[in-house]
Queue: 4 jobs
Job 1
Amino acid sequence: MGTSALGKAYITNFSRWIRNAWHFYYALILVLKVVCGGIGIALLTP
């Protein structure tokens, strides 16, 4: 009984970590797109 509860908690924590990692990844990509877009606009403007 104890091991199944422990395994379930481990899976929950692991899935939470995966979800946080995906959010971080998408936020990082969004920031890079904005920064690169800003640089592109700065380069295109005279």
Job 2
Amino acid sequence: MQYILVINPGSTSTKVAIYEGEKEYKVKTLRHSIEELQGFPSEEDQLQYRKEKVVEFLKEEQIDISTLAIVMARGGLSKPIESGVYLVDENLLHDLKETPRKHASNWAAKIAFDIAKEAEVNAYIADPVVVDELSDIARISGHPKFPRISVFHALNQKAVAKTYANRIGKDYKDLNLIVTHMGGGVSVGAHLKGKVVDVNQALDGDGPFSPERSGTLPVGDVVRAAFSGAYTQQEMISMLVGKGGMSAYLNTIDAKEVIDAAQNGDTKAEQIMQAMIYQIAKSINSLVVPLNNEVDAIILTGGLAYGQWFTSELEKFVKHIAPVEIHPGEDEMWALAFNGYQVIKKKVTPKEYGNTEY
């Protein structure tokens, strides 16, 4: 039996999984205490520690490293690239190490690369958040100093779009879809014949507000607040991402708790959730334009898509555009394994990161 190993690090954990093809064999979250991580003198030391924890996991599951067919890693904040599966090479590792945009996902490729080298197989990433397929006109923001860029939930959006296409017996590249990822952040993408030609920049909270992000705010008021002297730069950033949106209004990021409260007579909770639904619906409706008024389906995904009340309320605003499909959850591990399996089956040809021109 040949396995797919999937690696997805977070700030204080590393999610690992073993798949047999597209079938999940074992998934585990390896926890790392903050005190433990702070004890490492360098990033390289922490990477080595995390790699050793992954190797320990394989041994515990009695998975010999020689049985690995491929290693899949979550993509990080490298340079913008087109959608696809990419071989982890020295060029990618260099950019992930040197990028000024720090995130735990940047470590995944290096951990995967080292394990894959020992197993004498290849390591890959797939559809990282920096996937950029924006149309030229979508990049124009209103001022040349601030072009629109593409940073969104590409892995999940692409995976659910392709899954939907397979289910209805069509090619993803033949469909026009609006895919809405609704989790801690919200990204709404216009998938035009296999390319996300327009999408809000979800990393900084652009677009609809969400449980943790403020979304698009009145920019003049934000500028005046930033220069008022009342807030530091980090405090302003926290208002946008982390402590914005539902968190700022209701002091919680637990959407299920708020939805339950809204359904049980809490008028403030209902008002905020309805406002979030309203903003997401406006974004979905606006993406009819880049899809030339031809939309085959609207797909709702992410953690909030588990909420039947939430999706039902949202559907009221958008069902006139196209049929609405619900694909709840954000299964990054499955999405990475899915992409890896496509490589194994030779249904997808991996790309070389160093050959991407942006």
Job 3
Amino acid sequence: MARFNLFDAEEKLLEQAGELRTQMAEASPEVRDGLDRLIDAYGRGVREQRRLVKVSDRLQAQLATVNQELGKRKAEAEEALDHLKAAQESLVQAEKLASLGALVGGVAHEINTPVGIALSCASHLADATARMRKLFEADDIGVDDFERFMATVTDTTGLILSNCERAADLIRSFKQVAVDRTTSERRRFDLGAYIRETLASLAPHLRQAGHAVTVDCPEAVEMNSYPGALSQVLSNFVMNSLIHGFDPGQVGSIGIQVERPDPGSVRILYCDNGKGIADEHRGRVFDPFFTTRRGAGGSGLGLNIVYNLVVGPLGGSVQVEPRDGGGTCFVVTIPLSAE
């Protein structure tokens, strides 16, 4: 409003200037011409100011419209980003559950062998016991019969015990790994033993592919961290090698080496001698949804989950390096005691 009051004052000045021009009718022509030029210049200045004000008002209106549109687009982008984050989190959880499901299926298949052997041995022992009972009831037991029965009992009970112990070990390893995967609790554990437990749960996949796996870990490396996260990291490394590192029918080797760069941390080197990672892809392997096997079983989340677990709950760092002679090597550095 003050702006228009200012223009009113200027209009009044123009009116007063006109009156002054009338009053100076008898002045010399030079004075009247100078006054006319001054009044005309002032009038042009007032008109230009009015024009600039109109342009400014129009630009401010356009700017307000643009700002309103930008605010709307920002709200839409933020909403889309929230939906994308929720979808990504859902896919990550689905990937973890799929990994756990594969673990369940593999362990179930692995347990089936010792349980089947123990069942066959128990059935054979039951048959031998039934035959011995018949001989006993008929009072027709000879020394040879008794010795054969005792040999059968010794052999079958030994097989039953050894296979039941094998099944119990598999169940114990699977139970601990599965609980760690689902609860994400922090606890103390021996690193070397836990690496072997994780590999035992992945044995069916590795045995089917025929790859050799070696573990080189110093004794008594105790960690106070999140074993479920570490198990998920190692499992994703193994499945990445099986899916991406080796061609079907190719038999390779996988090595896990643990080093102590300083008293408070460990460095885990996971290496395979597979196809390796192309140079143009190495910088993107930890990006979400990046995969070279789109439509062929690759989700692009396996190594992204690895990255988030290592830098998140495990509190460390992970990088990928080329390996001399071919293959890939992932280097994970984590503290012994997670924050």
Job 4
Amino acid sequence: MPYITTGQENSGPIEIYYEDHGSGTPVVLIHGFPLDCHSWEKQVPVLLEAGHRVVAYDRRGFGRSSRPATGYDYDTFAADLNILMERLDLREVVLVGFSMGTGEVTRYLGMYGSARVRKAVLLAPLQPYLVDEHGGIDPGVLTGIQKSIADDRFAYLKTFLDDFYNVDVLGGERISAEAWQASWNVAAAASAKATYDCVPTWGTDFRADLARFDVPLLVVQGDEDRILPIESTGRRLGEFVRNLRFEVVEGGPHNIGWTHPEQVNRALMEFVD
């Protein structure tokens, strides 16, 4: 199991777990909260079959990566990604982020530029700025989520994942009880502190980062996204990025990569190749 070291906390290294498969033009996949890199299982085989090198990793605090007590902010997340890109010497990369992972994509391009990146993909994006004055959420919502996590993290994850998949509408059709349970198991196994500390990052202002985008961008989002409503996020990105292709998945929930892989994979492959 490969790891890269991105820092040190007291007596132990901070290590990021990653998987690196295939050959060809590299595609780096960055997962959403509160899952891990294996949540891309409906995309990885398609990318490999198309002849791409696929790199996916677990964000610090999640999956098999280290669980430090600090570093849950997008500057640090982007720094972790940058170390991965440099250690593996990845070039001509397509960066693909889902949900919280769109923050790494956006902050990376804002901080480090596009010397190693040729295209970017945001699935169910956080951007441009979730708590701004133009239809964004009240910052108190994030505080309330943290309280729910502190009170009973496992109960909160149940509520979150129900909305993650729109289980009341799509349960049994596009998300099975077993797949939902698998997501809950992964989420419950994550660091409690990381789960709590990540929530304020959802309110990060990415507008300055978006202004630095100089690579083609694909945005795909469900129009029934209950976690990051499309009117406050995806539909606004055209105001900030010129070279943008925007695709809407009709009836799609937040995790369209699982529930609507046929549409997501088609859009992804048409854009990546």
